[in-house]
Structures are given as C-alpha cells and as structure tokens.
Amino acid sequence: MRLLPKQYKGFIWVILLCSAGLWLGSAGVHEHLLAGTEKTYEELKIFSDILDIVEKNYVETVDSKKLIRGAIQGMLRSLDPHSSFLSPEAYKELRIDTKGEFSGIGIVITMQNHQLTVISPIEGSPAHTAGIKAGDRIVKVDGEDTKEMKLWEAVKKMRGKKGTTVVITVWRKEAPEPIEFKIVRDVIPLESVRSYTLKPGYGYLRITNFRDRTYNDVTAALTELESGETSLQGLVFDLRDNPGGLLEQAVKVADIFLQEGRIVSIKGRSGSHSKVYSAHSDKEKHAYPIVLLINEGSASASEIVAGALQDHARALILGATSFGKGSVQAVEPLRDGSGLKLTIARYYTPDGHAIQAEGIKPDVVVEERFIPEIDTQKKHHVQEKDLLNHISAEPDEVVPEKGSKKRYMGHVFGEEPSEAVQELLTKDNQAKRALEILTSWQIFSKTSF
Description:
Blueprint: E1 2-4, E2 13-14, E3 22-24, H1 30-34, H2 38-57, H3 64-77, E4 84-86, H4 88-97, E5 103-104, E6 107-112, E7 115-121, H5 126-130, E8 137-141, E9 144-145, H6 151-158, E10 165-171, E11 179-184, E12 186-187, E13 193-199, E14 202-207, H7 214-226, E15 234-238, H8 247-257, E16 262-268, E17 275-278, E18 290-294, H9 301-311, E19 316-319, E20 327-333, E21 339-348, E22 364-365, H10 418-427, H11 429-445
Parallel strand pairs: 3-20, 14-15, 15-18, 18-19, 19-22
Antiparallel strand pairs: 1-3, 2-6, 4-21, 5-12, 6-7, 7-8, 8-9, 8-10, 10-11, 13-14, 16-17, 16-21, 20-21
Helix pairs in contact: 7-8, 8-9
C-alpha cells in the first residue's frame, strides 16, 4: 500500500500531482463492504423494485447500467466531497496523476457548488505564467461549457501534447465579464523545492508540493543555506499555495526540524486505518528560529507540516488560515476496471487538533498583499469548509498531557538568487514580514531586560 497525503470533484484533482490523503491499493475496505444488516438488504430490495419499475415503465428505453452507476455515484456524493465512484476512464486518469510527469497546464482544481474552481496554479506552470488565479471558476474549456462536465473530463481536456494550445475561460469575482486565457501546454516542472539566501544569516525555503524527491531536495537546500560564510540565524519556510502531495515526504520534512514527539496521527473507524507518525532524535539539529508561511491554498500535506511545527513550538506560523483538507481517502480497484474512492480517516496534529474543515490557524495573521500595478485584484481562495457536503472536523483527538509549550511570539536550488530575492522582499508582504520577525528575534534574544 502506498500512502499519498491534493492539493485535491469528488476530490481535489491535481493536474500534476495528488493531494495528501490518498491510499492507493487495498485499504482494508472490502471487509466493510461485505458487512451488512437485514435492514440494509430490505432497502436494497426497495431499490431493486424501483429499478424494475423504471425499466418497464419509463417513457423511453433506459440503460440499466447507467441508472445503477448514477445511483452509486449519488450514494457516495451524499457522504462528503471527496468520496466518489470512478469510472474505468476516471480511474485510469487518477493513476496517471499519481505516477509522474505529463504535459498540461498545471493547476489544482476542485468542484465547488458544482463549478470547476481553481485551488491554485502550480508555480512555474503555464497556467501560473498565464495569470490563472486561485478562486477562478473555469466556465469553458476550448469553448465547451463546463456546467455538465465531470471533473476528470475537464482534467483530460486540459491535458495534451507539449506545445499545443488550450483556451480556458474563467469567471473571476472582481472581473466584470469572463476572462479568456490561451495557454500553451508544457511538461509541468517537477522541482518542488526552491531556496535562497535573503541576506547574510537568513534563508528562504519554499516547497510547492510534496513529491518523491522533496525530502532529499530539502536536505540539500538546507545544507547549502547552512554552509554560508555567516551561520544561519533564521529561516523563512514557505508552504503557501502548496496543495499537498505524498504523506511520507511531508512526515520526513517535518522530522528534519523536530527531535521528538508526534508529527501527525491518522484516525479512522478501523484500526487498520489508524496510525501515528513520530519524530526521531538520532539526526542533526537545525537550531535556528523558523517563520512558516501558509495561506488558504496550503492544503493537506503542507498542513501536516505546519501543524506539527506549530504544536511543537518549533516555528511561528504567519499568514492566513489554511485550506482545511484533513481527511484520508482510500482508492479501491473494482472488478470492471472502475474504482471506489472513500474517505476512511482524519488527520490530527500532535496536540490532537483536527485539521479537517478547520485548517491551521496562524500565530500571526498577515494579509497577502502585492504591488498594485502587478495585481490589483485581491485573491479569493476556496477552502475545504466551502465545499458542498464537506465532512466535519470531529472533536479534537485526546492526546496524553505534556508539559506546556511556549510558542514563538512576537531559487530554484543552485540558481542565482539576487533578482528573485529582490522581487520577494519588495512585492511579497508576508515574506517581508517574516524576515522582519526573524531579524527582530535575533535582536531581542541578545538583549538583557
């Protein structure tokens, strides 16, 4: 079984990657599907009676298979936004999403109130370069209305060979009329880690999504940042608009900065769906303060990292409340090539707080602001709590009492950073504020009161 923590309609589709919270393969679901009660079978008899009446009496000839598939989909949609029945074609598309690179436009989308909605464009992708924004509603793809389009169908239409063009029409809240983007497809960039030296002694680390090499790339980036002429005195850790990715990678990244205790726990009805991930002490310490940036586009795996570092008082969290994708889905292959995607568990932070529909709340709220001539429209982000029929947070998990903790108050790897750093610190209000806090922290730590 492979654990995948989106980004992320039954669920959040990522045109490049999967959101955190997806278990592929056998997930111990069969034993539950086989379980039933006499009352259940009585209800199934009623279903069978209705199907028989429809087949014999509906005004037109009906496709029984289509009716049954529709009933299955309706049953799963009544549970939560992330549980769904996957047709053989949709299941095939999902498997492509989990296996690596392909050509497309690079956006993370979901279905909000029956509308295709952008969670975030993937940094460096054609969609990002073209100006697609979080919160945009996709109303047409190549002139075809998306109103009746299934999520996987939209994903498939936006994919294509490198160099080909797709026309995406979006409705943006602040715009007077729909906006049309002509986007040239490309191979979506696979690098997920960027790092810069902001100023002597202060580093910047950004993770755009959690892929199979993210941990290795982070350790390499930290080695370079820590080997400068001036010892590293603070780190700006950027997880904004990170839709998720591989659970194991998120756990390993969090473990870099922690010496003990829980990182995340997964709790479902079945014991086989419950697990606790903990930090290891037998590793190098990175003993410098961290300000971690999140926003409404930070989901799933990125929320796991932020929650772990916040609960252990290892980082000050700055920005806006995160997306709130704190549930785990299992994908079970079915005999005809289709699949069942079912929510089986919730994530909990080390202190037992539920992420689902609640998100990670920042210690310091700082509004996202950009240079007016670059971006005059305020971003509108979609969050888990906005999704139709989302599952609730559930009470926070009870964890053993521990000593009270006191929280902090108060380049593509190897690429020439100067231009990127200048842009970051002049146009990015949150990153600028994070650096100010780190430098102030160093000043106060040397002051006697």
